[in-house]
Design brief:
Elements lengths: L9 H21 L2 H22 L3 E3 L4 E3 L4 H8 L1 H19 L7 H25 L9 H34 L7 H33 L20 H17 L11 H7 L22 H13 L14 H36 L1
Antiparallel strand pairs: 1-2
Helix pairs in contact: 1-4, 1-5, 2-3, 2-4, 2-8, 2-11, 3-4, 3-5, 3-7, 4-5, 4-10, 4-11, 5-6, 6-7, 7-9, 8-11
């Protein structure tokens, strides 16, 4: 669902930048230093996991489309909404600047559409209420927690992806892109992202179920103090397993990702070449809005993106995809650590000034 710059008028893009920036500021201010420090290794590994996971497009049968993990629900369940949102912003910024995935002008909108809903709406309206409820309690402690994890993961991913897809439609409509009439665009975007959200929900549930079995205290709102839900692995082992998954997914499975267009591209351009619907039928070379701001930021992106489209520049070598997965995951993990360290430094400085 990474939006390109051509989908946004500069005024709309600036508004979405402001909304995302305010949320970043509020998230940094809300986080407590000790909580951030304690979660630093988990934040680094899970952020890398989401980056690698987003490289795996899975086919939506019978449509000619594909989807990929968004990751907001996964990160908020493990890190909380604020740290999860900051991790998603790190991921999306690195994807944009160094891999040319999503426009630089559209980065604020992409952070809002892909991070805000999953991390805040998904957590506060679904994850926490479901995990704190007594539903499924008749199944016993562990079985009930497993059922709640699956339910919250699937419902959370479906709802938040629907909200993100609808926001894309609203943003393009407000931008005045007449090639994407509101009603028709909604009618295509929402159903395909419902299917994508269902698959993401199952993937999210699988990852969170592993964490629950290994180290339940890593999950938000799980009563890990109960003797019935003690983990089977050490924290080091759990993070090592997740790191191994990052390497396998980013460096290996990324090579077999679906070549079908993702939900947003499919909605706009279709996949008629493969025998599927043309949908909105836009020309991939000429659509949307051209602006000086987009051109200027696009020039910046061309200079910073050293692995554009997750490949070596001017090369069809499959090794470019593997390198992109491994390098990008490492960059995301490192950036997540830097965010935590920088946040702790500024909090210490602020406390010292007050004293």
């Amino acid at each position: 669902m990474h939006m390109a710059d051509a989908l946004l008028a500069p005024a709309v893009a600036a508004t979405m930048y402001a909304a995302s920036a305010v949320t970043v500021g509020a998230s940094v201010k809300t986080l407590k230093k000790d909580e951030t420090t304690a979660k630093l290794p988990t934040m680094a590994v899970t952020s890398a996991l989401v980056f690698a996971g987003q490289m795996i497009n899975y086919t939506i049968p019978g449509t000619g489309s594909s989807g990929h993990l968004c990751g907001g629900m996964l990160l908020s369940a493990l890190l909380g909404p604020q740290a999860g949102f900051l991790s998603m912003v790190v991921i999306l910024t690195i994807q944009c600047l160094f891999f040319a995935d999503g426009g630089l002008l559209a980065l604020g909108a992409n952070c809002w559409n892909m991070a805000f809903y999953g991390c805040f709406v998904g957590y506060y309206f679904l994850w926490r209420p479901i995990m704190s409820s007594s539903c499924f309690s008749a199944l016993g402690t562990k079985a009930a927690e497993r059922a709640r994890i699956v339910l919250a993961s699937v419902l959370g991913c479906v709802l938040t992806l629907q909200l993100g897809a609808f926001s894309v439609v609203l943003e393009t409509s407000v931008s005045g892109i007449t090639e994407l009439p509101f009603a028709a665009f909604v009618g295509i975007m929402q159903p395909i992202h419902l299917a994508i959200g269902l698959v993401e929900g199952l993937i999210t549930a699988a990852v969170l179920m592993f964490v629950y079995e290994a180290r339940p205290e890593l999950l938000m709102d799980v009563n890990a103090g109960d003797a019935a839900v003690q983990g089977r692995c050490s924290l080091r082992t759990t993070l090592a397993v997740l790191t191994a998954v990052v390497v396998v997914v980013g460096g290996g499975l990324s090579l077999v990702a679906s070549a079908n267009p993702d939900g947003l591209e499919w909605s706009m351009f279709g996949n008629a070449e493969a025998g599927y619907s043309a949908n909105m039928g836009l020309d991939e070379e000429s659509y949307g809005i051209s602006s000086g701001a987009a051109d200027a930021l696009g020039a910046v992106q061309e200079k910073t993106a050293f692995l554009p489209d997750y490949a070596f520049a001017d090369s069809d070598s499959a090794a470019g995809t593997s390198v992109s997965g491994l390098v990008g995951s490492a960059m995301v993990a490192g950036a997540a650590i830097l965010v935590c360290v920088a946040g702790g430094f500024f909090r210490k400085k602020k406390i010292a000034e007050k004293a």
